Amino acid sequence: MSNTQPAPVASEHIALKARKVSFDWADTPLHWVPGDPFTTHTINVLHLLLPAGERWFVHVYKQVLPLIRDERLREDVIGFIGQEAMHSQAHDDVLPHLAAQGLDPSPYTAQVDWLFEKLLGDRTLPPGRASRWWLKERVATIAAIEHYTAFLGDWVLNAEALDRRGADPTMLDLLRWHGAEEVEHRSVAFEVFQHIDGGYRRRVRTWATAFSALVFLWQRGVRFFMENDPLLVDGRATLRAYHRRGRQGLLPTTGAIARSVPGYLSRTYHPSQEGSTAQAVAYLANSPAAKPASTESVATGAATMNGDR
User: Fold this and answer.
1) pTM for this prediction
2) Contact, 153 vs 275, CB < 8 A?
3) What whole-number distance in Å separates Cα of residue 236 and Cα of residue 71?
4) Helix pair angle (37-64, 188-196), 10° resolution
C-alpha cells in the first residue's frame, strides 16, 4: 500500500446515476467540424476506442464489486458501471453512421476489440496470488485511463473554440454529455484502486503503460481515418497539424497533456482536485440528450451489455 492516502474533496462527491440518452445522426456530416477533417477525425478516435474499452471497464468492475467493503464506494461503482455502459453504447452507435458515409471503421475496431478482450481480458491463472495480481493490474490500468478520460471531459466542456468553428451540435452534445459524466465520476476508478491495492509503484507502472498505449492507439486511429476518408485525396495526420489545432483551442494542447502527468504521479494526487463537478452537473441538467433523461435511471442490469463480452 502507498504511504500517503490522498484525501478527496468531500464537497465534490455526488450520487452517480446512468442517464439513458439517444442521438440522431441523420444530419451530422462526415466532417462535423466544418472544413477541418483533422480535428474531426482526431476526436472521432474516441468512437473507435471507447466502445470496447468501456465494455472492458464494466467487465472488470463486475469482478471487483465483491471485494469492495466500503458501502459508499460500492454504490459509486454501481453508478460508474451504469454510466460506462451507456457511454459504450452511445459511441458504438456512431460507427454505422461513419460507415454509411463511406468510412468503415471495422478494420481498426477489430484490433481494439482484440486488445481489450484478449490482451487485457481474463486469463486462466491459478486461484490466489496470481489471479489477484492480474485483477489489481487491470484496476490500476483503469484508474490511469480514467485520469485521461476525465482530463478530456474537462477539456471538451470548456472547448468554446469548437462552438465558434460551427461544430455539429449533436456531436458536441454527445462529447459533452460523456465528458460531463467522466468529470462527475472522475474519482471512482482511483478510489477503487486505492481500496483494492493503492501501491504507488503499480500506479506509476500502469500509468506508463496506459499513457503509451493511448498515444500509440490515438495517432494510429487518426492516421486510419485520414487515410481512409472518402472525401480526402491525400489525407495525412501530422504532429504539426495537432499543435496548430491545440493553439486554436480545437484540441487539447500538448502542454496541457504534459502538465497532466506530474499531477497523477504525485503521491498526494486525488482526482477530485481537478475538474468541476458543479460544471459537469450543470451541463447535464441542460444537455439536449441528457435533459429528458435527467430523472430516468438505467437499470444496473444494463451494464451486462450484449452478454458482457
Assistant:
1) 0.90
2) yes
3) 50
4) 40
pLDDT tens readout for residues 15-35? 999 999 999 999 999 999 999
Condensed to tens digits (0 to 9), the pLDDT of residues 115-133 reads: 999 999 998 877 778 899 9
What is residue 297's predicted lDDT score, i.e. its pLDDT? Answer: 46
